[in-house]
TrEMBL record:
Keywords: Transferase. SUPFAM superfamilies: Rhodanese/Cell cycle control phosphatase. This is Sulfurtransferase. GO terms for molecular function: transferase activity. The keyword Transferase applies. InterPro entries: GlpE_sulfurtransferase, Rhodanese-like_dom, Rhodanese-like_dom_sf. It holds the Pfam family Rhodanese.
Length: 94
């Protein structure tokens, strides 16, 4: 499983890179604060919403356990897990 640190994600965002961030927390958790520009797909719904994702795009998963990353990787997606999930995020939140 590929991993990226929260600092690397923040740096790439500051460099205006277009990132495809998927936050797999529950809707109420995301509403309480999330990284700007994320797509929210709760972990429990991920297998039912994979059709919304493009296998030709790289994704960064905001998932503390890495479970979502492992699942999407097994489905043929190019995914990288952000280590620590939102607990490690120190950047801007909405």
């Amino acid at each position: 499983m590929k991993e990226i640190t929260e600092k690397e994600v923040q740096q790439r965002m500051e460099n205006s890179e277009k990132l495809n961030l998927i936050d797999v927390r529950e809707v109420d958790e995301v509403q309480a604060g999330h990284i700007p520009g994320i797509t929210n797909i709760p972990l429990g719904l991920l297998e039912f919403r994979t059709h919304e994702l493009d296998k030709n795009k790289p994704y960064i998963m905001v998932c503390r356990s890495g479970q979502a990353t492992q699942y999407l990787e097994s489905q043929g997606f190019d995914v990288t897990n952000m280590t620590g999930g939102m607990l490690s995020w120190e950047g801007k939140v909405e």
